[in-house]
Amino acid sequence: MKKMFSKGLVLSAVLLLLFSCKKEETAAAAIDINQIKEEIQAKENEFAETYNSGIMKEIGYFADDATTYPQNNQPVTGKEAIIEYLKNHRDTISKGNKISFTTNEVFVAKDGEQVVEVGSYKVVDSVQAIVNSGNYMTLFVKKDGKYYSLRDMSTSDLPNK
């Protein structure tokens, strides 16, 4: 009777272990990195379109407690403060120029709740000549099924003056 109970206990433990591993594999397999990269790129495209329009507004890009680290400035914290900063510093791109962002890589957490994006940007004038370019990193967090920028920073390829 003890042997039968021991065998049953061992078999139950093995089955439990197998089912636990299977759940982790299923959760990891459900994350589609290419789909997430496309989703992040779409957010960057919407951000660029809004910024280029000259009318900064809430578009669901920044988390409420986001912090951005703008070039040559102090960090700006809070969604409203960031939008206000962008409104007041729109002239850093200058009228007539357009910015665009390219998502080069995404690093997705196993649960899909956080994504680090590594990308590049360029600013072109009215004849498509590049007037500025650089790279950026953004940490996105997922809330209510959508990604929001929690932290971001960028660097310019232009030499220091």
Structural summary, described in words:
With 161 residues, the chain is of the alpha+beta class. Helix content is 37%, strand content 35%. The protein contains three helices and six strands; from the N terminus they run ααββαββββ. The protein has helices at 2-29, 33-53, 79-88; strands at residues 62-69, 76-77, 98-108, 114-124, 130-143, 146-156. Strands 2-1-6-5-4-3 form a six-stranded mixed β-sheet, with helices on one face. The chain is globular. The protein starts with a helix and ends in a 5-residue tail after the last strand.
Keywords summarizing the entry:
161 residues; alpha+beta; six-stranded mixed sheet; 3 helices
Would you spell out the secondary-structure blueprint of this structure?
Layout: H1 2-29, H2 33-53, E1 62-69, E2 76-77, H3 79-88, E3 98-108, E4 114-124, E5 130-143, E6 146-156
Parallel strand pairs: 1-6
Antiparallel strand pairs: 1-2, 3-4, 4-5, 5-6
